[in-house]
Amino acid sequence: MKSTASLFHALLAVSLLAGCSSYRPAPAAFHKMLDQPYRLGAGDRVRVTVFEQEGLTNVYSVDQSGYLSIPLVGAVPARGHTAQQLEGEIADKLRQGYLRDPDVSVEIDRYRPIFVMGEVGAAGQYSYVPGLTVQKAIAIAGGFSPRANQESVDITRDINGKVMTGRVATSDPLLPGDTVYVRERLF
Predict the structure, then answer these.
(1) Cα separation of 47 and 56, whole Å?
(2) Cα–Cα dist 181/149, whole Å
(3) Soluble ligand binding domain location, by residue (predicted)?
(4) Using CA atoms, how far apart are residues 5 and 122, in angstroms rounded to an integer?
(5) Coil, strand or helix: which one is 139?
C-alpha cells in the first residue's frame, strides 16, 4: 500500500512538472526567415520614387488588405512582395498606357511595429528598427519586471501566412510584426 502511494505521488509530481513546462522550441522556419529578403505586410510604409515623375513619387502605406493605392494605376498588391518585386509591379502597371519606360525605386520607410507583453516594465507596441533583438526590445519596453523569466521568451511570428509561436533566447533577432511574450518565472 505504501509503495502504491509513493508511486502515485511520484507520477503526480512528474505530471505536474510536465504540465508546467509547456516548452515550445522555435520552429526551424523561425531562423530561415532571418536569411530571406524582407517581405512587405500590412502596416509597412514604403517610399516609391518614380524618376522624373514628382506627382507619383510619395510615401505609401500597405493597407490591411495588403495593397498600395498609387495614383493612375490604383491598387498594387504589396503583401508578401519584396521591395524589388514591388518595383517591378509598379513599373509594369505604369507601362500600361501611362509612361513609356518608368524607372521605379522602392525603399522601406517604416516597418510594421513589434509588440512586447508579459513581465516587462511597459508592455505595448513599439517601432521596429533593423537589427532589433529580443533583449533590445525588452529594454525599450522598460526592462524585465522583478518576476520575469530572463532566460528565454515566446515569439509569435507570421511565417508565410501561418502564425507560429516558439521559444527563443533573448539574443535572437526580431522581425517586423513579431509579438514578444516575457513569461513569469516559477521561483
Answers:
(1) 10
(2) 10
(3) 114-164
(4) 47
(5) helix
